[in-house]
Design brief:
InterPro entries: Beta_helix, PbH1, Pectin_lyas_fold, Pectin_lyase_fold/virulence. This is Right-handed parallel beta-helix repeat-containing protein. The relative contact order is 0.06. A hairpin with a 5-residue loop joins strand 45 and strand 46. By secondary structure, this protein is mainly beta. The longest helix is centred in the last third of the chain and has 16 residues. Helices cover 7% and strands 45% of the residues. The radius of gyration is 26 Å and the shape is globular. The strands form five sheets. It has a 22-stranded parallel sheet that branches. Strands 3-6-9-12-14-16-19-21-23-26-29-32-35 form a 13-stranded parallel sheet. The chain has a domain of 150 residues: Immunoglobulin-like, CATH 2.60.40.
């Protein structure tokens, strides 16, 4: 297992490359070597390489070949008139802690490979020669992209075709460019996890959307934030598709724009769409198709979602489909359903009871008021909880009681008293927003609260909002948790403030 060093500033290709003081100068010098399982190629911080890096050899599952960086300073950059990194039939590869920018074609392209991991890689302004600038994988297996950022990519940010085993976790993909560009597009792939990513198409010339799954098999899309685009999530065809706990907003531009759409480009069978917050768009969930293709749309279950600020209905079904829509929360200004009479007459898609946001809000306010004895309660739009008897995950009510002005924020953790049968508890939403990797800050009625993904929170009282008040006041923030296995629950954090003792402690601080 050999470590090779490459430094574009101080290196020389006449060196042996095996030490920092004897580093190569170019990637071409590394390509001339036969890399073995467990070898590492480390690029010096601050280096710039104006060449394509071809990976020709494979590592092993237990000893992959690693492309990384060393030293202190800016991450090394690969620039190229063609691909940044190119691999064909080279498997068991790790690429980490580098930048790829200003390439003529793909940032990374690999075909007929297996077991690649791309982590903590920054990609920008790729695809300048009219070719796709994506991070691309084709006809491959077990591809992971995590903790990476892609911006200004010409064509789809991440593009995969015929990949078995896709894991996309905690990435940021913004403003993919081109008339047909999406943040992510996965074609004819299977065993897919798309989780905790921030995907945004708000400042782009693309006429398309954010996340596309075409003919996917066994996919879980969970905990992502999708913003902008002509549509949010297009899962047009597939089998066993779970779409849970995503925040999808800001999509529009077309009369048909949707937050989640399916039913076109193939059969759609066994979809569970739950716990999502769809807002600031046209339709919520759209089950449709162009023309009248003989596709099957079967067992589409849509429940426990929140639909808010939509210009059309929460659900539109205008092609034959079977499934159900129930226990959702819908803004009173948003119609529940668009369904032609011919489709309704087939009686295969049931529409159950839903609540308005106002009704759900009133229930939460009532529950919070009963628990604290207060009447002044403020909280964001809630999501309906599953009855406790059927739950494999249980969110337990949290409370913060404030009796004095300490001069600093008040801290706690939302998750420490919650329980899940599999031991995994994930904070998905706080208030009416998804909690992403940066946490979430909300302004409440009496203070400002910041929440991290691990449940830690800090609440800072806004003393100006307590001026002229007396007695006790309170506000409540709903939060939602998941066990990562499609089970969800919701409860709330109640903040109670004794205004009189708070003012008294302020006076004492001023006197002291």
């Amino acid at each position: 297992m050999t470590v090779y060093y490459v430094n574009s500033v101080t290196g020389s290709d006449s060196n042996n490359g095996t030490g920092e003081s004897s580093a190569f100068a170019t990637l071409a010098a590394v390509e001339a070597l036969r890399l073995n399982p467990g070898d590492s190629v480390l690029l010096a911080a601050g280096s710039v390489f104006n060449e394509q890096f071809d990976l020709k050899y494979s590592g092993s599952v237990s000893a992959p070949i690693t492309i990384g960086s060393y030293g202190i300073g800016e991450a090394p950059v690969i620039r190229s008139s063609n691909d940044g990194i190119h691999g064909s039939k080279a498997s068991n590869i790790v690429i980490e802690n580098i930048k790829i920018a200003d390439t003529g074609a793909n940032a990374i392209y690999a075909g007929n490979v297996s077991n690649w991991t791309v982590r903590n890689v920054e990609v920008s302004n790729t695809g300048l020669a009219g070719k796709p600038g994506s991070v691309s994988f084709q006809s491959s297996q077990n591809i992971t992209i995590e903790n990476s950022s892609l911006t200004g990519v010409h064509s789809d940010g991440i593009w995969m075709d015929k990949v078995k085993g896709v894991t996309l976790v905690n990435n940021t993909v913004t403003n993919s460019l081109g008339s047909a560009a999406d943040a992510i597009q996965l074609n004819d792939s299977s065993n897919i996890l798309v989780k905790d990513n921030h995907l945004e198409q708000t400042e782009t010339n693309s006429a398309k959307g954010v996340l596309v799954l075409i003919r996917a098999q066994n996919a879980l899309v969970e905990g992502n934030t999708l913003v902008g685009g002509g549509f949010g999530l297009s899962a047009q065809a597939g089998t066993n598709i779970a779409i849970h706990d995503n925040d999808i907003s800001g999509y529009g531009g077309y009369s048909w724009s949707y937050g989640i759409g399916l039913g076109d480009q193939g059969n759609a069978i066994n979809y569970d769409i739950s716990g999502n917050y769809l807002h600031g768009g046209v339709y919520g969930v759209l089950i449709s198709a162009i023309g009248n293709p003989a596709y099957i749309r079967e067992n589409i279950v849509i429940h426990d979602n929140v639909f808010d600020d939509l210009s059309s209905s929460a659900l539109k079904v205008d092609k034959p489909a079977s499934g159900s829509f129930y226990d959702n929360i819908i803004d009173s200004a948003v119609s529940t359903l668009t369904m032609p009479a011919t489709i309704a007459a087939q009686n295969t898609f049931s529409i159950g009871e839903s609540k308005t946001i106002e009704q759900a809000q009133a229930e939460l306010d009532s529950a919070a008021g009963s628990a604290t004895g207060d009447t002044q309660v403020s909280s964001p739009a809630p999501v309906a909880a599953v009855p406790a008897a059927t739950q494999k995950i249980v969110a337990v009510h949290d409370s913060l009681k404030i009796t004095e002005d300490t001069g600093s924020a008040f801290h706690g953790n939302l998750l420490e008293n919650d329980k899940a049968s599999n031991g995994t508890i994930l904070l998905r939403r706080f208030g009416d927003s998804a909690v992403d990797k940066y946490g979430l800050t909300l302004t409440g009625k009496y203070g400002v609260i910041h929440v991290e993904r691990d449940g830690d929170y800090s609440y800072t009282v806004d003393a100006a909002k307590l001026a002229g008040l007396s007695g006790k006041v309170s506000e409540s923030f709903l939060y939602k948790i998941s066990d990562g296995a499609s089970h969800i629950d919701a409860d709330s954090l109640s903040v109670s403030i004794n205004v009189d003792t708070f003012h008294s402690s302020q006076s004492s601080h001023m006197l002291s």
